Amino acid sequence: MVQVPSKMLTLEEFLQLPETKPASEYIDGQIIQKPMPQGKHSTIQGEFISTINGVVKPNRIARAFPELRCTFGGRSIVPDIAVFIWSRIPRDENGEVANTFSMAPDWTIEILSPDQNQTKVTKNILHCLKYGTQMGWLIDPNEQTVFIYRPKQETEVFDEPDALLPMPSFAGELHLTIKDLLAWLLE
After folding, report:
1. Long-range Cβ pairs for the range 65-72 (8 Å, 24+)
2. Is residue 57 predicted with pLDDT exceeding 50?
3. Between 162 and 116, residue with greater pLDDT
4. Phi, psi of 102 (to 5 degrees)
5. CA 94 to chain centre
6. φ, ψ at 108 (rounded to 5°)
7. What is the dihedral of CA 124, 128, 130, 133, to 10 degrees?
8. How far apart are CA 167 and CA 148, in angstroms?
9. How buried is 123 (Cβ within 10 angstroms: 0-12 exposed, 13-18 middle, 19+ buried)?
10. Hey, which of 73, 74, 123, 184 has its CA 20 to 30 A from 25?
11. What's the mean pLDDT in 18-46?
12. What's the pLDDT at 8?
């Protein structure tokens, strides 16, 4: 769903607007509302965040965040899962996680919903890579496929159930296959 205001808003003006549910993103001067997550999307998102954090968070290597607004490079996007290396997580004066993340995540993960535009999602992943993201994933539950994006490399397509999915270097201890991701839908 595209919402086009009567006059073009700047990124700064967009950031002053109240948050929407589901979240809206600011891309190339347009406000685009994300589709409402459905069952498969929500299940994979929740399980994947727990799985990532179970491996990288105890040793303060990184942390996965659901639906976190990331504003950088003239856009304000909300990846389904944004993973930040521990030392890059913004902190407030109390040492707590800050509310504002003005940088690209180290790993961005999108889970395609049935009514979501794959081109828009891919453009967001490529935007992240341009601004320092190490790896981007696009999970398509209906096609049982994971697209892996890395800076200046050819896109890899994984659709074999037992193929081990590549991870960013900081998450090397995480081992998952497509079969593992889809098994979450059966639990």
Report:
1. 67/23, 68/101, 68/105, 69/23, 69/101, 70/101, 70/102, 70/103, 70/104, 70/105, 70/128, 71/11, 71/15, 71/26, 71/100, 71/101, 71/102, 72/102, 72/103, 72/104, 72/131
2. yes
3. 162
4. -105, 50
5. 27
6. -110, 135
7. -150
8. 9
9. middle
10. 184
11. 92
12. 81
pLDDT of residue 36: 86
Number of Cβ within 10 Å of residue 135's Cβ equals 24
In 3D space, the residue among 66, 81, 72, 68 whose CA is nearest the CA of residue 27 turns out to be 72
Please check whether residue 181 is in contact with residue 139, taking contact to mean a CB–CB distance below 8 angstroms: yes
């040492």: which residue's tokens? 95
Instruction: Return the bridge partners of 138, or none.
Output: 110, 147
User: What is d(CA 145, CA 158) in angstroms, rounded to the nearest whole number?
Assistant: 6
| Residues 37 and 22: beta-carbon distance below 8 Å | yes
Encode 89-102: b = buried (16+ Cβ within 10 Å), e = exposed: beeeeeeeeeeebe
Question: What are the tens digits of pLDDT across the range 114-154?
Answer: 888 899 999 999 999 999 999 999 999 999 999 999 999 99
> For residue 140, how many other CB atoms are within 10 A of its CB?
18
- Report the Cα–Cα distance between both ends of the chain, in Å, rounded: 32
Encoded tokens for 90: 């913004």
Q: How far is Cα 187 from Cα 184, in angstroms, rounded to an integer?
A: 5
Higher pLDDT: 38 or 177? It is 177
